[in-house]
């Protein structure tokens, strides 16, 4: 069994003491968002995103005290609850417990990440990546990488069938399904360039 750790403060994954780059770091290195958005706005959005992720995570695990929730976060939670109902999202935690905010690493390609959700959507195993910002082209590369991570854990008959990015807002949600079968190859190209830049 490998020694897999995650340092929340550094946002750093390690496997047997070796640093594995995260999915977001790899993609961000090749397609930096900061080229288009100010640092201050990025920090504000990141803070809100973390709070939304924490809120939805606690809700899905059944440990959220909704009565103590900030009104703004309650609107995002309502959007998530509506999406779950509309798309028939189911968590089969008895057969596969690691479906909510799952930390994973790839033993072959040596990268890691936190997969938001790995549930069933209409009886098909899916990747769901929660977003609170605007849609970006590179989000499809994220879900492809997360599917690679999840598929290492899943039995053949339960492999990832679909990939979704769910954009939550205070007034509802938007869903984008990522269908491009070339997304995985593009992500691996990003990983190759990322590793090349850091090679001696």
How would you characterize the overall build of this protein?
It is a single chain. The protein has 200 residues and is of the alpha+beta class. It has a single domain, classed as Lambda Exonuclease, Chain A. It contains 5 helices and 10 strands, in the order βββαααβββββαββα. The strands form 3 sheets. The protein has a 5-stranded mixed sheet with strand order 4-7-8-9-10, sandwiched between helices. Helix 1 packs across helix 5 (183-198) and helix 4 (139-151) crosses helix 5.
Keywords:
alpha+beta, three-stranded antiparallel beta sheet, 5 helices, single chain, 38% helix, 200 residues
Number of helices, where a helix is a run of at least 4 consecutive DSSP H or I residues: 5
How are the strands of the biggest sheet laid out side by side? 4-7-8-9-10
- Please identify the top-level CATH class: Alpha Beta
Secondary-structure element order, N to C: EEEHHHEEEEEHEEH
Derived from helix and strand composition plus strand pairing, the structural class reads alpha+beta
Rg from Cα: 17 Å
CATH topology: Lambda Exonuclease, Chain A
Spans where pLDDT lies below 50 across 5 or more residues: none
Proportion in β-strands: 15-25%
Shape: globular
CATH-scheme architecture = Alpha-Beta Complex
Tell me the major beta sheet: 5 strands, mixed
From the N-terminal CA to the C-terminal CA, the straight-line distance is 30 Å
Percentage of residues in helical conformation: 25-40%
Tally of strands: 10
* Tally of domains: 1
Compute the average pLDDT: 90
